[in-house]
TrEMBL record, chain A:
<keyword id="KW-0067">ATP-binding</keyword>
<keyword id="KW-0472">Membrane</keyword>
<keyword id="KW-0046">Antibiotic resistance</keyword>
<comment type="similarity">
    <text>Belongs to the ABC transporter superfamily. Drug exporter-1 (DrugE1) (TC 3.A.1.105) family.</text>
</comment>
<dbReference type="InterPro" id="IPR025302">
    <property type="entry name" value="DrrA1/2-like_C"/>
</dbReference>
<dbReference type="InterPro" id="IPR005894">
    <property type="entry name" value="DrrA"/>
</dbReference>
<dbReference type="InterPro" id="IPR050763">
    <property type="entry name" value="ABC_transporter_ATP-binding"/>
</dbReference>
<dbReference type="Pfam" id="PF13732">
    <property type="entry name" value="DrrA1-3_C"/>
</dbReference>
<dbReference type="InterPro" id="IPR003439">
    <property type="entry name" value="ABC_transporter-like_ATP-bd"/>
</dbReference>
UniProtKB/TrEMBL annotation, chain B:
<dbReference type="InterPro" id="IPR013525">
    <property type="entry name" value="ABC2_TM"/>
</dbReference>
<dbReference type="InterPro" id="IPR000412">
    <property type="entry name" value="ABC_2_transport"/>
</dbReference>
<keyword id="KW-0813">Transport</keyword>
<protein>
    <recommendedName>
        <fullName>Transport permease protein</fullName>
    </recommendedName>
</protein>
<feature type="domain" description="ABC transmembrane type-2">
    <location>
        <begin position="47"/>
        <end position="271"/>
    </location>
</feature>
<feature type="transmembrane region" description="Helical">
    <location>
        <begin position="160"/>
        <end position="184"/>
    </location>
</feature>
<keyword id="KW-0046">Antibiotic resistance</keyword>
<comment type="similarity">
    <text>Belongs to the ABC-2 integral membrane protein family.</text>
</comment>
<keyword id="KW-1003">Cell membrane</keyword>
Amino acid sequence: MIVETSGLRKVYGSTAVLDGIDLAVREGEVVALLGPNGAGKTTTIRVLSTLTRPDGGSARVAGHDVVREADEVRAAISLTGQYSAVDAEQTGRENLVMAGRLMHLGRRGAVRRADELLERFDLVDAGPRRVRTYSGGMRRRLDLAMSLVAAPRVIFLDEPTTGLDPTSRTTMWDAITELVRGGTTILLTTQYLEEADRLADRIVLIDRGKVAAAGTADALKAQVGGERVVLRFPDAHALSRATGLIGGDGAVAAPERLELGVASDGTAEHLHRLLDQLRAAAVPVARVSSHRPTLDDVFIALTAHPADAPVPA
Amino acid sequence: MTTTASTPTTVPPLRPASVRHGGVTNAISDAMTLIGRSIRLTRRNADTMVMSVVLPLLMMAMFVFVFGGAISTGTEYINYVVPGIIILCTGYGASSTAMSVADDMTSGMIDRLRSLPIRSSAVLVGHVTASVARNAVATAIVVLAAVGMGFRPNATFGEWLLFGGLVLLYVLGLTWLAAAFGAVSKSVESAGLFGFVMLFVPYLSSAFVPTDTMPAFLRPLSEHQPITPVIETVRGLLTGTPIDRGGAALAWTVGVLVVAFVVAVRLYRSRTSR
């Protein structure tokens, strides 16, 4: 395990921001920490990148303890935080060379590395310009490039695409996907389910400082139920007849929408059977749609608190 | 914008194992890198540069040509006031370090720097050194401009050296103080308050008028505040007035330097390791 935490705790005042987080990330894996604002995602990343001292539990990154062997951890990781961490009054190239020098690549090594990264992140033309003149997407790409100066074994990305327009977000995703192909271990936080779904091998849902659920996107979706076929009828009479015919186990009728939801295995065969049964009984059907649970469903089901909002069925 | 996606180049491997961190050589190279950074940032921050040179020049011109005629100090007023202007100029110049440090602390930069395998004080060393370099340039400009306005120092070479040394200690001390202030400031704007303090405090000293012309309740404060012995020593070194409080000047500057250094590094560490 390249990242391993056990019972990680962090308390601010009387609030336990981290209340016993257990994580295990294998080398080469991409894991997304997903959760609402204030769930403890950023604090987890800050502890793992040696910026915040935990109050309890332990955390090891690349085989080193984040508290006792902070320097060894720092040599193996890189962090791209939520806020842009580049100097606006330096050029992109100067920022990268500086980062290389501070990672002890030597003057020549730092310059060479800076030029490679500018090319790699499509910033060659912008390289000699001050960062102040960059767009948000360019700044974020430079930020990521800064993190890659020393070929880190683990990269921490704290909300890498927050505040980016859709085009820049896609570009950023492509850049991250490519890193993954190179075998880098990535631990990222996000509030966007789509982002977790697209980038991560495994998702860890964090809520109120605890791990609420963990697994692949598919496994999490399966947790809130499988696929459903939703049939809509022209009138209440048709709905009630259909409910009598096919409304067995797991079917849910929604009379106000004239809809009937039926559990399905997602095959065409099952759909055929349903429609054949209804046609044989001359029950008219207005529309058919199929519904796969999204991460949104998972997110809402697992993180909504009785006090805040009712858990949807 | 999609080049990144279409170029199949992966990041060229660079074995982290081949890089060594820690050690004195790296510490020196880190400090040099961050000094270079701070100097570049300062040079490009036109406001700071202009303010730290133009403001003292304007104040000097105002005191010499506007108020000077009405102030009686027993000597040519310009010879009296220039040492005060130099101290005001360097104090104010040093204060911008509070803003540079606060800028790092309140942006994401500090997290980036803190997650690197470098000494945490290297960042402050960078800011402080840049401030000293900037103030050396500003002081030289102010002294030259003063000579142009009629300032006639009679210092020997040795006295110039002592002057340089004392001003250097003073700037270093105030810069570390500014760094400490910047390290605890919630925003760059509030860090800017330090500049106001440094702009105002010299008025309650012997910088512009002899302290014995002040009302009795102010006199103890203005005579014993740290800036007064420093100004009087500078005045003595440059224009030959008696130096009776050179020891106090030295004690104050060294004292402020040591205390401010320790406090700044402590505050910086505790602020960044929550």
